[in-house]
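Limitations
The structure tokens in this dataset are predictions for the assembled complex, not deposited experimental models. Users should treat interface geometry with appropriate caution, especially where small molecules or nucleic acid strands are included. An illustrative entry is reproduced here so readers can see what is and is not provided.
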Amino acid sequence: MTDWVVRPDGGRPEGRGCAHLPQADAAPTPLSAACQECAARGGGGGGLRLCLACGHMGCSDSAPGAHATAHFEATGHPLVRSADPGEAWAWCYVDEVFLQPHGGTPT
Ligand SMILES: [Zn+2]
Ligand SMILES: [Zn+2]
Ligand SMILES: [Zn+2]
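Predicted assembly:
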């Protein structure tokens, strides 16, 4: 299992951390292949964010629904990772820091 670490270039002052990293699963099993809220409405678009706590798949803030953020607000699950192809980064909504895989890109 790959651990996440706070990204050095996350735009935060030195020492800014994330208290939620011990809860993070680097690769939870996605509950769905796309944003279910959007699929139910026949919509979609934008990037996908995977909740590291439960595997919920939601669309990013660049999509009209922003369901990943809505999922955080509804559940308090703080960590999501990008589910877009070729992207390996995560975000903590609570601490507002970007995370990267520790020691490389997860496969
Ligand atoms: Zn955090
Ligand atoms: Zn959505
Ligand atoms: Zn969740």
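Some entries come with short summary sentences. For this one: The longest strand covers residues 97-101.
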